[in-house]
Amino acid sequence: MIRAYKFLLRPTTRQVTALTAMLRDHCSLYNGALQERRDAYRHGSKTCIKYRNQSAQLKEIREFDPERQGRWSFSSQQATLRRLDKAFAAFFRRVKNGAKPGYPRFKGGGHFDTVVFPKDGDGCRWDSTPHNGHTRVRLQGVGHIRVHQHRQVQGRVKTISVKREGKRWYVILACADIPTEKLPPTGSVVGIDMGTVHFFTTSDGQHEPSPQFLDAAAKELAEAQRHLATFPKRTRRRTKKHQAAARKVAKLHARIRRQRRDHHHKTARALIRDYDVIAHERLNTAGMTKTPAPKPDPHKNGAFLPNGTASKAGLNKAILDAGWGQFLGILANKAESASRLVVPVDARNTSRTCPPSAGGCGHVARENRVTQARFQCTACGFAANADHVGALNVLDRAGLVLCAAA
Predict the structure, then answer these.
(1) Fewest C-beta atoms under 10 Å: which of 202, 284, 287, 367?
(2) 276/3 Cα distance (integer angstroms)
């Protein structure tokens, strides 16, 4: 298996300066390569500049600017150019498929926050042997940085990434050949129905409370954002007060992300520990949180009809705060590590179908979902909690999927 480990770095003040310079110079390399491609694109040649052409120029660039480009790892600079090449590949793929193109854009200093070292030992070195009680990682041009290693690294380290989040610095290790940690079988299976009022409901009838971290920090976050909004949007020179206000908003969002991720890991681990098979809905969260398309008024030129954007915004916010996509991804990864089985099933009409496994008739109708929390079949009169009904139907569909696969 391939897994990633993320550890907090403890750099000194001088190392923070070097890390910041490393990000700045890699960002400059990215933007310079993007400008070269833009110039070629404007002159009518879409494919004459590729990764191999720009990578061949790295030696000359490093010799021309040894202070800003020559002191960093050659392989990490190649990884930055590959990052741009992937952005252009995705752009041309979207154009070919008729989607919104999204032409690659220049990166500002605050939006380029990761440097990748493709191979351990080439410009970087993960030192798993503690020195004076501390694990360290060595980066070319920066030196040995202390690492807050909170768990043991397994497998073989393949790539090393350095990431900045606010004022914090992290090292991310991508490791291969990680052995599985098989858990003893429990003989239990479960279906879960994701929600916003409850984080999820199991087919056993248990409701997992929704922590709603964004709502809990809404007042503090709104105050910080209002203070940030008092500064001019476009200023040639940002003041220290503006930077401090922006850092506070970023710090609050980072705290919410960490809380949400921690909750997802703990909740997924509890499910993996208690059940052998876990079934869930196959959710398209990107489509579910999409803003409704505008409805032009056929009787008034330039006018639009109400499309429910305001009411949909609240639901979108709740779905994104729950973080269903991240949770289901973590659940799948933990299931693979523990030799458990996760079965995604079709999510259509799971909360509108009368569950046969609970004595229902299997009737499907929109009217069966009376309210957000109440289900009552219009055919047989079966009544239950709507989320519980959804979880039962998810489990039933998973059984059909497993039977078909067998």
Answers:
(1) 287
(2) 21
Q: CA-CA distance, 207 to 196, in Å (whole number)?
A: 11
Q: Are 119 and 158 in contact (CB under 8 A)?
A: yes
Tell which residue, 262, 260, 250, 225, has the closest CA to residue 167: 250
Alpha-helical runs (H) found in 149-284: 213-216, 218-229, 240-274
Measured on CA atoms in the order 340, 329, 119, 166, is the torsion positive or negative? negative
Tokens of 384: 């239950």
Handedness of CA 71, 73, 78, 84 (dihedral sign): negative
Work out the pLDDT band at 207, boundaries 50, 70, 90.
very high
**Cα(104)–Cα(341) distance, integer angstroms:** 39
What percent of the chain lies above the pLDDT cut of 70?
Answer: 98
Helix (H/G/I), strand (E/B), else coil: 171? strand
Per-residue tokens: 119: 């191979």
Domain boundaries, the chain: 3-176, 189-347
User: How far, in Å, CA of 58 to CA of 72, rounded?
Assistant: 11
Closest CA to 343 of 188, 183, 191, 184: 191
